[in-house]
Amino acid sequence: MAELDPKTATIREVAQAYATKNKRGDAFVTSSVQFFKDIADEPGSAMRLFEKDADGITLLARTFKESEDSSTVKTAMQNLRQVGLTLKGSYGPDTPEYNLLPDEKPNTELNKRIFGRAEPAKAVAAIGINPDRKAMGALFSGVAKYLDDPKTRPIAQAIIFNLNTGLRPNAVGQLQMGSYGSENGSLFIDAETKGAKGRSVNIPLNPLADSILQSNLPNAKKTGFFFTKENGKPVTSEDMTKLLREVKVPKIMFDQNTKTYYDSLSPANFKGKKGSALLRNVHATIGYSVGIPMERLAYLQGRSLKAASDSAEQGTYLVNYPHAVGDVDRGHASMFSSFFADAAKEAGFDIGDRMPLPTERITTATPGYENYFDMPVAEKAPEPVKAEPVKAGPSPELQDQLARNNLDLSKIVENFGKTVKTVVDKTPGPVKKAFGPLAAGLTTLTAAGTAQRVEAATGSRTLGAIAGASEFAPIGYSDVVDMAAGRSAPDTFGMTPASRIAAEQEAGFIDLETNREPEAAPAPEAGFITR
Predict the structure, then answer these.
(1) Are residues 261 and 408 in the same domain?
(2) Which candidate, 242, 244, 236, 302, places its Cα nearest to that of 75?
(3) How far apart are CA 524 and CA 528, in angstroms?
(4) Statement to judge: residues 212 and 342 lie in one domain
């Protein structure tokens, strides 16, 4: 906040400063300004939120006093409390502004006066999910039909992944390459990751969840996220909620407070917990119905080892080691993919046809992918090097060199030109159109530059002259250099074409004439895919 003046800072500026410092991302800023878009960029608007008007009421209180108890309101109030605390850090305790700003803890008397209400309580579901296989099969197949549309495919994939893992929707949307353990078929989500709630967690992946990440590896490498929409932005919990609103399943959920059945996880005008926020409820309901112990179910859903432990004291000795998952928990995770496979099949939907499991998996042991998972998502392109201009025509040194070797550059050019013209004259029309400029020969500038470079590299004027003259041939010295560079230049995975082909041939993965793609080890040999 040192670079911002609290008296003139805008809401957006302070929110961005907090988000940057605490690695909260753009979603924090968006939520902070969504109720104040008309003033979010006005100088001084951040402090204006907390100042009292003539009636002694803040702008925040006028905005939130009659607001509903929704997750949107809760998140906005939490974020704006952090905006206020960020401002508060710039004022001394004896200043009048300091006393206008909120307390760190929520729902103190001061904070309730500033915001006009208490922050909404965490949504406690009084919602019952129908665990019947027929209902779950209809839910799964209803979501899966959106896999066919490129616009909705990443959202549908995120929901299906969520149903199979029980992770928080925001954690799924923000899932990145660095969290995926391809060898173990697991996730390790760092405590600082959005949606992790400050706790690092290990998640064993069942075959279906793993196959989704495997299919999305190229996208994750390109964008940084496994689930990305067509606009390049990661899928959000709101995206999942909107899609779930379109999936209708008779009596999929029951609200115990109103004794009402609903045919959607996201019914219109429903004020309670709904949509993507209920996916963990679905996962927990299925897990309980198939006999997974509650403490292991909590662990599968990404809760801390301490929270998942029967003994809180024993839990203090447990710290997650990245991607260390046991056979018991992996077996529990696989029970979900088996459940959905059977339920969907009963509903007339074959998961194997729509979402086939990989017969071969990509890991760091796959030739060509050794550094794939630890490379940066995007590398900054090197700054172009401005070349020194080369004077047209042969240098005095080249002219002297040609004379000493009884060579006449003009005759060499003329002879090469005649040779090239003969070749071009015999070339078919379409090819001649593409390569016709060769008939005029390359410029003396190129020939002179090549001659000078070769002479400098070899110390031989004769070789320099010959190399320079070769530029007037259909394949000149510079063409050979370019082809050699292309053969040796490293690709996206850090391998040269030559080394890639050699490695793949030696491993027996490819036939040089028919397949140049690296292949992975068979999935069953990976040691964790079971059904």
Answers:
(1) no
(2) 236
(3) 7
(4) yes
Q: Would you say residue 30 has pLDDT above 70?
A: yes
Confidence of residue 440 (pLDDT cuts 50, 70, 90): very low
* Segments forming the whole domain that contains residue 197: 127-357
Q: Which tens digit of pLDDT belongs to each residue from 393-438? A: 555 655 666 566 565 655 554 554 444 444 445 444 443 333 333 3
Q: Is the pTM of this model over 0.85?
A: no
Nearest to 266 by CA among 285, 286, 284, 247: 247
487: amino acid identity, one letter: R
Question: What percent of the chain is modeled with pLDDT above 90?
Answer: 41
- Predicted local confidence at residue 272, as pLDDT: 79
Identity of the amino acid at 219: N
188-208 in b/e burial notation, b at 16+ Cβ within 10 A? bbeeebbbbeebbbbbbbbbb
At 460, list the tokens.
Answer: 């031989």
Element (H, E) at 262: strand 260-262
Closest CA to 15 of 70, 67, 110, 85: 85
Q: How far is CA 80 from the centre of its chain?
A: 27
One-letter amino acid of 187: L
Contact present, 298 and 263 (Cβ < 8 Å): no
Total domain count, the chain: 3
Tokens of 241: 């909620």
Q: Give the Cα separation of 214 and 141 in Å (integer).
A: 21
φ/ψ bin of 252: left (φ > 0), alpha (ψ from -120 to 50), beta (otherwise): alpha
Q: Which residues pair with 522 in a beta bridge?
A: 360
Whole-number pLDDT of residue 467: 66
Mean pLDDT of 457-473: 63
Crossing angle of helices 11-22 and 26-33, in 10° steps, is 150
Q: Are residues 145 and 274 in the same domain?
A: yes
